[in-house]
Each structure stands twice: as C-alpha cells, then as structure tokens.
Amino acid sequence: MNVARGGFISSVALALLVLCGACLVSNHAALAIVPLACAGPWFLCLVPRVRRLSGPCFAAVLVVSSAGLVVGLSLAAMLAGVLFSLAAWDLEEIAWRCRGAADTVRAKNMALAHLVRLLVVVGAGAVLAAAGLLLRVSLSFPVVLGTAALLMVSLGILVRGLARWERAGG
Questions:
Q1: Is the pTM higher than 0.85?
Q2: How many CA atoms lie within 13 A of 47 on its CB side?
Q3: Backbone angles phi, psi at 50, to 5 degrees
Q4: Nearest to 95, CA basis, from 112, 117, 81, 83
C-alpha cells in the first residue's frame, strides 16, 4: 500500500510541477491556479475515508492542458502533466483497493504488479505520443484508423498478459 501511495504522491507532485511550471514560465499565471487548486483535493485522497477526488482533479488537469495548448504552452509539458495526472488517478484507485486487503504482503505484491502494468501502459502512451509528435508521414485516414486500432488491440493484449502474469505470482 505504501508503494501505491508513494507513487500517487510523486505523480501528483510531478503533474502539478510540470503544469504550473509551464504556465508560469510562459507568463500564464492565471492558468496555473487550476492545478494548484486541485492540489488540496488531490492530497485529500490520502485520508482513509476520502475517495473519488482524483477523477475530478484529472478532468481539471485535462482542461488546463487543453487550454495550455490553445494559448501556446509546450505540448511536451502538457502531455507530461496529463500522463502524470493519469498515473495519479490510477494509483489512487489501487491504493484504495490495497487499503481493504487483510494480507499486507499480498497488498504489496498487488500494488507492485499494478505499478509494473501502469509503467508499461504510461510508457507506451508516452512513446506513441512522442512518435506522433515527431514523425511526419502522409497517410490516408483509413490507414491511420487501422494503425490506431492495431495499436489499441496490441496494448490491450499487453495489459491482459501483464494481468495474467500478476495473477500467476509474477
């Protein structure tokens, strides 16, 4: 459980740092208020009886990132903020599930296996997003749609394989 909570705290801190930093460096201090306003509710998720605040905070980060792109903030910073906040949202859920586990060793193993899956999924998402930003190829819409579908199916197969590996004692 401590592993998931530590990852949650780190992810929230990194998301806020990246988003607020990008806003402040680009002289858009007003835009930095929203992620900072999410800090309190997000960290309230660490209180044992408080739950389900990560979803609205993640939605607020998506709005800030979209607005940041509209006003010309760094695409890489906005993407990093979204990825870190997505990880925080996911880690809040696994931390909540681990709280209810009676066996602390099992809870720790469950959290570690989940962290491995999360790392693979977020890493794959970051690599695909970076590839989409850096590679310029002229493709027809059906080819792009087919490639996206293939990537989504491949990612689903990878996640299912990692879940089987976790259940097998990975």
A1: no
A2: 10
A3: -95, 130
A4: 112
